[in-house]
Amino acid sequence: MSTANPTAKKNHNPKLAVILSILLAGLGQLYNRRYVKGALFIILEVSFILTLGQFINYGIWGIMTLGTLAGTDHSVFLLIYGFVSLILIAFAITLYIANVKDAKRDAIRLRDGEKTPTFRQAAKNVWDTGFPYFFVTPGLVMLVFIVVLPLLFTVALAFTDYTQYNQPPRNLLSWIGFENFGRLFFGSGTGDSNIWQDTFISVFTWTVVWTVVATTLQIALGLFLALLVNDPRIKFKRLIRTILILPWAVPAFVTILVFAAMFNDRFGAINTDVLAMFDLAIPWLQDPFWTRIALIMIQTWLGFPFVFALFTGILQSISKDWYEAADVDGASRMQKFKSITLPHVLYATAPLLIMQYAGNFNNFNIIYLFNEGGPPVRGQNAGGTDILISWVFDLTFELNQYSMAAAITLILGLIVTGFAFFQFRRTRSFKEEGNI
To answer: Which H or E run contains 185?
Structure first.
């Protein structure tokens, strides 16, 4: 008894449908006798070529050359046009791949004798199965142009010679490869050219010290106060918690400005009222060392209330049965802290604590509002308390060193992303349930 499908078309070639779809979107569908779908693909491709073909050609030329006529071609605009063209090409390739797959799938169905849905049925199936993608797509498109495009532009600037003395449209930009990164890491030439390397090493070192010390202190103080308030022997816990949370309730920029006035060398209350009793006067805003000490103390004050509130909630959720069992075993207070309290606290809060470190690594507000990254340092183009993000701000808006600012931004992003990813992967809270 024959089992062959009588509706099968053995002479229908899926490879030919694929080739036709590659030559022109929609031809494969026409070969499969899906005329409406094929016509739509053809109209879409022809419209794309006619409306955007010239723009894409101009954009690709622009991103490759960055212009050829100084005063006429604007390298920055050409760079943006180029990336927009690449994004449009990526969308077009995605649709083209979908067109080829659709033609191949329908051709295989025809060859095997399977029933192919009508256009109305296909449209209904697409809506039923793909409606989440229809709602996500507009947001994805906006994300690409609002977030991805500026990121690509910043990365590209890091490989150009865009400086205060080489700005379009008066001058054309050029691709210089990794020269900016070489100036930061290894220096270039002699004399003043090494200022970039010296400044980068100094700023990067202080950024790491600032991040580690300030964040660790605010976490340690928050944990200490949370343990203290959580002790059953402490009374008036609600009042104490309310008082300790108050620094968090005041806007950070207000607190920073108040502290900037208090630490002022000439009229600040710390020098004139507190240290004057001991015949001391510290140059808080003139000496980089003391400015850094002041910044660390201010950040500790600003950061500990959040950590305190976080740890307080975690401590209250730890079962008291474990402490009672530890008392039966004769464990000391320190042993109970190391074996019960600390592991539970870190397990529940590790991602948020990592975010504290990452946030302080890019904490622009306190550095800028307190002393604008000062005081100045001889032989460097950054202030004594500038961290990488505030140095980028100065390079962009004051020194107009756009390409170097972009290079530092790229380094900054890679450091924060790598650190956060590495630490998250090491924390148990990042692992999937059942794989802990």
So the answer is: helix 179-185
What whole-number distance in Å separates Cα of residue 297 and Cα of residue 259? 10
Low-confidence ranges of the chain (pLDDT < 70): 1-10, 116-119, 122, 126, 130, 188-193, 424, 426-436
H/E/C letters for each residue in 296-352?
HHHHHHHHHHHHHHHHHHHHHHCCHHHHHHHHHCCCCHHHHHHHHHHHHHHHHHHHH
* C-alpha dist (Å) from residue 91 to 23, 64, 80, 87: 18, 20, 17, 6
372 and 314, same structural domain?
Answer: yes
pLDDT at residue 6, as a whole number: 54
Residues 102 and 207 in one domain: no
Rg (CA), the chain: 31
SS3 (DSSP) at 100: helix
pLDDT of the residue at 135: 79
Considering the entire predicted model, what is its pTM?
0.83
Kindly state the tokens that stand for 197: 């390397």
List helix spans (H) across 186-251: 195-230, 237-249
The CATH code of the domain that includes 209 is: 1.10.3720.10
Token reading at 226: 């949370």
Cis peptide before 375 (omega within 30 of 0): yes
Tell me how far apart the alpha carbons of residues 300 and 215 are, in angstroms, rounded to a whole number.
7
Q: Which domain holds residue 378?
A: 194-430
